[in-house]
Design a protein that fits this description.
Elements: E1 21-23, H1 51-61, E2 65-71, E3 83-88, H2 105-115, H3 120-123, H4 125-138
Antiparallel strand pairs: 1-3, 2-3
Length: about 150
């Protein structure tokens, strides 16, 4: 996506990047609350999705996708893991859906929520996350006597 994105203009076509929908990983993160930016019910969401996973799922289904180095405004952490905004074209220039099953932003987000757990990278995740949770619980050990 080499073209610079400008402000919205009514003359823009649906094929222009400015008219594509935006999806932040926080929209489908089951760890977030509605106040923190989750847009779907937890049953339709995924635990800590990344912009790469969202991009891979949408490219696999055949949608035009762009990735931007943006941070969700409600995101508290500034870490690079939480960066990334996905732009997706869901309408043709005449206003018809690019794919009939994706007529709205919600349908795209629900599809992402269903598809990310099926990714090969997600199949091995639970074993990888266990050591991280034990490290977090061990952090405060040994600090009792220090002041």
């Amino acid at each position: 996506m080499a073209a610079m994105i400008t402000s919205w203009n009514p003359e823009k076509k649906h094929s222009d990047v400015e008219r594509w929908i935006c999806i932040y990983p926080a929209y489908i993160n089951s760890k977030k609350t509605l106040a923190e930016g989750r847009k779907l019910p937890k049953s339709s969401c995924v635990e800590n999705p990344t912009h790469q996973e969202i991009r891979d799922v949408l490219l696999a289904v055949g949608l035009r996708v762009g990735v931007e180095n943006k941070l969700y405004p409600r995101e508290r952490s500034k870490e690079i893991l939480y960066r990334g905004r996905i732009r997706v074209q869901i309408k043709n220039d005449d206003g018809t859906p690019v794919k009939s099953e994706f007529g709205s932003r919600e349908s795209v987000m629900k599809y992402i929520g269903e598809s990310i757990p099926k990714l090969k990278t997600r199949q091995n995740r639970p074993a990888d996350q266990q050591p991280q949770s034990t490290q977090a619980s061990n952090k405060n050990k040994g600090k009792k006597g220090r002041r």
